[in-house]
Amino acid sequence: MLDQNVAAEVLSCATRTGGDFAEIFLEDRRSQSLSMRASRIEAVSTSRMHGAGIRVFDGTRAIYVHTNDTSREGLMDCAAQAAAAIRGREPGKPVGFSRWTAAREEEIRLLPTDTPAARKAEKLRAADAAARSVSDEIVQVTCGFADSVQDVLICNTEGVFVTDRRVYSRFRVSAVASDGHENQSGTVSPGAGVGFELFDTVDPEDCGRMAATRARTMLHADNCPAGVYPVVIDGGFGGVIFHEACGHSLEATSVAYGLSEFSGKLGQQIAAECVTAVDDGTIPGEWGSTHIDDEGMPTTRLVLIRNGILENYMIDKLGGRRMNMAPTGSGRRESYQWAPTSRMRNTYIAAGHDDEAAMIATMGTGLYAKSMGGGSVNPATGEFNFAVEEGYWVENGVIVRPVRGASLIGKGGEILRKIDRVGGNMSMAQGMCGSSSGSIPVNVGQPMIRVSSITVGGK
Amino acid sequence: MSQMDLFIQKLLAAAKAAGVDPAEVCYVESSSFSVEAMEGKIEQYEVSSARRLGLRGAVEGRMGYASTEAFDDGAIAMLVSGVKDSAALAEAEEQEEIYGMDDAYPELTPVESDIDGVSPEDKIAMCLRMEEAAKAFDARISKSQGAFVGTSRGLMRLVNSKGLDLTAETPQGGILSAGVFLVAKDGDSTTTGGHFEATRRVGDFDPVAVGQAAAEEAVSQLHARPVESGVYKAVLRWDVMQAMLATFSGVFSAENAQKKLSLLAGREGETIAAPCVTLIDDPLLPGGMATAAFDADGAACRTKAVILDGVLETLLHNRKTAKKQGVETTGNASRTGVGGPVRVAPTNLFLQPGTRSAADLIRDMDDGLLITDISGLHAGANPISGDFSLIARGFLVVNGEIGRPVEQITVAGNFYQLLKEIREVGSDLIFQGRSIGSPSVAVEAISVSGADSVQP
């Protein structure tokens, strides 16, 4: 993708005014997406993204310049612009690349760029038909499939020179149920860091039926009561609770400036003893996995919280400088258009020992959140909120009816201490996480857990 | 002829030779420069330039799409084959069409802009002054989460094989945006708050005022606590209503209505909102962020009321949705990216302001809530059903006076219902660097759940 001599020349140019670190991130990404509405393929689009970002550090200052022009002249121009932001110091030393490696790559059997769009379209048709067969109340089904092959080259003045290929595939089915007055929707969207072999494990018809059933259940649901209740949150996407309520506050982006409620709390009890949480980039083929991060560092498995005690933060290179701690392979970015920062990968609460049925049977009156929607958090205050996509009301330990419109709100630190049961079967689900380095694929996960009390927003 | 002109010319010729006819190129370029400071130190510089080109074209009447950011030798072949592969699968009942020039295009009011004269040093100085002003305003401001000043400019060009060739600045005159975000601390209470503004005339931008406004926003929420659950009268501050409109603007799209994703399908002429509600889509708004003479279909833009005195006047159309419904396009064709289908989007969309100030609305409410912040819109709002359940902050209003701050509550309701329950629209219409704007609004009833409610 880039000649080593050119790379060395560009990095030297970037540090000629005294920058103490420079990096090139070069990317070429081929993506395809298909969408279906009203049982017809609506659009297929193919795109190629191509560009480079040059980053220079001056202590804890960062300069980032990006461009689509990846010719030698284009990169030199970017490097010169970046260098111009730093003034009056000694030029950096000449760059020699010592680590010339390609990141580990699992075998991708069915590369998206080699898979005809017509084969992808068949999967959409199957899901659409299955969703519509669930009920006459299903008035609309939209499906989509998107895949991409991202080739990157990362090199820096520390001698790193690596290439990596990241392959992603994601399927999405969304069904709308209507009684003529009201609409409710249900969405299922599995994805993985694999090619078309995604469909070895994902059955489009199952996805269609699940989305339709969820929409239909919610159409016939009552509004969720509001108040403070015990809440049982199911596994899989339920892990968004940890992602929002705690994960973001453990990223260097928040911690480095003392903006996180967990700043300075390493080694302290921040969660109930039953909580162990992990951020793991090493699981092969998962949606949030990485081989190397977007700063060229090998990925890691980090135990964030062990038995309630805070063990690790997620740290990128710049965050590491600011915190005086080593990076953890957590530097990620959406594309060359974004400077990387500390981000999550596959983040989950590890399996515990509690029985799932007993968890609900002993909860009294409250909410069973079977499927969560997305959420957001303010890392400075820990305030989070997330939507319950599919919820059930529990009275005296018995599930009595579906409820809709519920949201869960609270503060991260509080909720971690209020987790009182952790089930034995951990599962993960896919999401796109948006933050200051763009939107990136992450997995969230957990077993079924119970929170002793949480504010439920409803009507 | 520029290199890009040449590339476009070669591309359209190659498309035609390959049987892609008609074909259209959408080309965008943008550049930006921003500076971010934190705690008096410059932390980040970001300079970007981007070029992206999309090709859409018909093969036997079926439309295909492809786009690229690389303009090398392989790019033309990749675009043409991408379009052909994609067209071969397209089976939507109504296919998109490509049109030549419209009869006439409106003249846009020129905007004066001096943002290009702002040097990096000026930007740094502005950042530092915003932070200093914030800290000087109140000792309880404990930290800055960052101050930023950025300028950006963009350009969009549509060229097709039917003779269309249009270029627009996006936005007109570029934009300078600047703001600061703060943490306030007092005892065991921590809050955040910020303020940002956007302008094209640097002289209008007052870093000290922005810093002070941000500080006031942050400290005003110190020691906030929830209120009891219940149904409250409320005033939604302009920025809260702006966020609501932005989240739910898709309900006014004819495309969504035709696809049964909006409950406003076929309801033109019906009363869907309170009589005080008039919602305008104005692509000709002087200085608007979405101000444009033509849309993504190449159709002329025009100003229209979507809701007039509570009555749904029209949905927003592109040429395809208009044709299906047998009406004229409203000039609201939009592309989310250069390489995708033409959809529908509002331009400059806003609630027409009333005559009385937000303060008047609050005074008249007697008892209720002033909502100043909502979050979680991407998850807690369902654009199809209109349901929302959002974490909110604000103030308790007692006897028409703004009282103690309120946090950790959720406000829940339904957007369609909210439109009917607007009691009055304030006079404070604000866009603040966005294409969707709103004044503050008073609403009859909003359902609130707070943390200190009692479990039954």
Q: In brief, what are we looking at here?
A:
Chain A is an alpha+beta fold and 459 residues long.
Properties at a glance:
heterodimer, A: 459 residues, alpha+beta, PmbA/TldD fold, 2 domains, eight-stranded mixed sheet, six-stranded mixed sheet, 42% strand, globular, B: 456 residues, seven-stranded antiparallel sheet, five-stranded mixed β-barrel, 23% helix
Topology (elements, then pairings):
The complex is a heterodimer of chains A (459) and B (456).
Chain A: H1 4-14, E1 21-37, E2 40-58, E3 61-67, H2 72-84, E4 99-102, H3 117-132, E5 138-156, E6 160-178, E7 183-188, E8 191-192, H4 198-201, H5 204-219, E9 222-223, E10 227-233, H6 240-245, H7 252-255, E11 277-280, E12 301-306, E13 309-310, H8 317-323, E14 331-332, E15 341-342, E16 346-349, H9 356-361, E17 366-378, E18 383-395, E19 398-404, E20 407-411, H10 412-418, E21 419-422, E22 427-435, E23 438-446, E24 449-457
Parallel strand pairs in A: 4-6, 9-19, 10-17, 16-23
Antiparallel strand pairs in A: 1-2, 1-5, 2-3, 5-6, 6-7, 6-8, 10-24, 11-12, 11-16, 12-13, 14-15, 17-18, 18-19, 18-20, 20-24, 21-24, 22-23
Chain B: H1 3-17, E1 23-38, E2 41-59, E3 62-68, H2 73-89, H3 120-137, E4 141-160, E5 165-169, E6 175-186, E7 189-199, H4 207-219, E8 230-236, H5 238-248, H6 254-258, E9 279-281, E10 304-308, E11 311-312, H7 319-325, E12 333-335, E13 342-344, E14 349-351, H8 358-365, E15 368-375, H9 377-380, E16 387-398, E17 401-414, H10 415-420, E18 422-425, E19 436-437, E20 441-450
Parallel strand pairs in B: 8-15, 14-19
Antiparallel strand pairs in B: 1-2, 1-4, 2-3, 4-5, 4-6, 6-7, 8-20, 9-10, 9-14, 10-11, 12-13, 15-16, 16-17, 17-20, 18-20
Helix pairs in contact in B: 1-2, 3-4
